[in-house]
Amino acid sequence: MLSTPTLPRTTFAFLLGSVLLVGLVACGSSTPMAPASPTSPALGSAATDSLLRQVKTQIREATDEGSLDSLKQARAWAKQATGGDRAALAHYYAALADYRMSNRLPEDNEDRRERMIEDAIGHLKRATEINGTMADAWALLSGCYGQMMGMNPMQGMSLGPKANEAMKQAKTHGPNNPRVWIIDGTSDFYAPGMFGGDREQALKKFKKAARLAERETDDPLMPSWGHAEAHAWVGVAHMDAERYDPARTAFETALDLNPDYGWVKQVLLPKLDEKQS
Predict the structure, then answer these.
(1) Largest CA distance in the chain
(2) Distance CA 76, CA 92 (A)
(3) I want to staple 133 with a disulfide (CB 3.0 to 4.6 A). Which of 61, 105, 168, 173 is the partner?
(4) What is the pLDDT of residues 72-94, one digit of tens each?
């Protein structure tokens, strides 16, 4: 085809979204991450569930605190569970830890960020092979493909269709999953208009994600992040449009839901204060 290919909107969403998140914390250890072992010893069902509950909690707390070391530990624990009967979920959490770590590294540490995203993609592909209806894994896979393209634009022709297909699968299997709509909304928010970007449409998706999160049961084992994050993105969209009062309301709601939310406390509210000063 002679026409210029259109890169998927996830490229812009996750590349630029990372810039906001990176400012939260200083870098952690620069020690390269060990490659994933090809196999993990099988754990019993009760042990697997207990370990994955711990992984979920640690990822949430480490993300709030910006602790790379804690995220690395959570990733290692998740990999221990990939040989059990919750393999798809274990692969998902290993990838989520990779993704969170990648977002907290400076942009000039591209080699390390790329290794983390490559590892995340590998885990997410395995998760979707095991459980093809896991919307969370499909959505995060789309985002990781977008980050990879942001670091390697020349791969857009090959990775673009994969990112789009992953998001299609996420919406098919999780139409009421708030995390799917957060990811889709950030795509709309950051993509240029020529690539389908629409910031007011993004705001609608963030609000939808917030509504869906209110009805979601916080399963101690399954992914349930996104309630506070959806409100944070609502605030970002309002702040971008210079609607500062509703932006502050959204940020305060996010902190009501998660008082330890570092992105809101350390980045977004100070930025809003600066704009209103």
Answers:
(1) 57
(2) 12
(3) 173
(4) 999 999 999 999 889 999 999 99
